[in-house]
């Protein structure tokens, strides 16, 4: 089985690499990261291939070639690495109310922008005054 671990230089990924290298059913391990990855101490690096990428949003052809034929992928990259969007300034009370509302009622969508936080926070603050 060919396994890809994305974000391979991180703490969790290092343990995943160590365990994957010990498994006989993992025949090839691609460690995709923004910096070179080596096998943890005491592990056999024969089936480990470190692939360095500068942007997880773009995959050059040489990287795609290394990923081809994979049977599984474990993604350990924090979601914020893609694009950070400035939020501007919002009162802490509005942000806190919006986040509490979304934690209790469930997130209405995957990414909340500043306009979403303003709207949700204002509604939550207004409704809390009615109770």
UniProtKB/TrEMBL annotation:
<dbReference type="InterPro" id="IPR036291">
    <property type="entry name" value="NAD(P)-bd_dom_sf"/>
</dbReference>
<protein>
    <recommendedName>
        <fullName>NAD(P)-binding domain-containing protein</fullName>
    </recommendedName>
</protein>
């Amino acid at each position: 089985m060919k396994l890809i671990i994305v974000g391979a230089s991180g703490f969790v990924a290092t343990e995943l690499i160590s365990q994957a290298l010990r498994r006989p059913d993992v025949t090839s391990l691609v460690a995709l990261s923004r910096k070179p990855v080596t096998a943890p101490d005491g592990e056999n690096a024969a089936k480990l291939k470190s692939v360095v990428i500068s942007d997880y949003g773009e995959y050059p052809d040489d990287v795609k070639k290394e990923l081809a034929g994979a049977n599984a992928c474990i993604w350990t990259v924090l979601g914020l690495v893609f694009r950070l969007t400035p939020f501007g300034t919002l009162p802490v009370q509005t942000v806190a109310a919006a986040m509490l509302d979304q934690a209790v009622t469930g997130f209405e969508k995957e990414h909340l922008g500043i306009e979403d936080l303003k709207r949700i926070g204002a509604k939550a603050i207004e409704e809390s005054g009615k109770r």
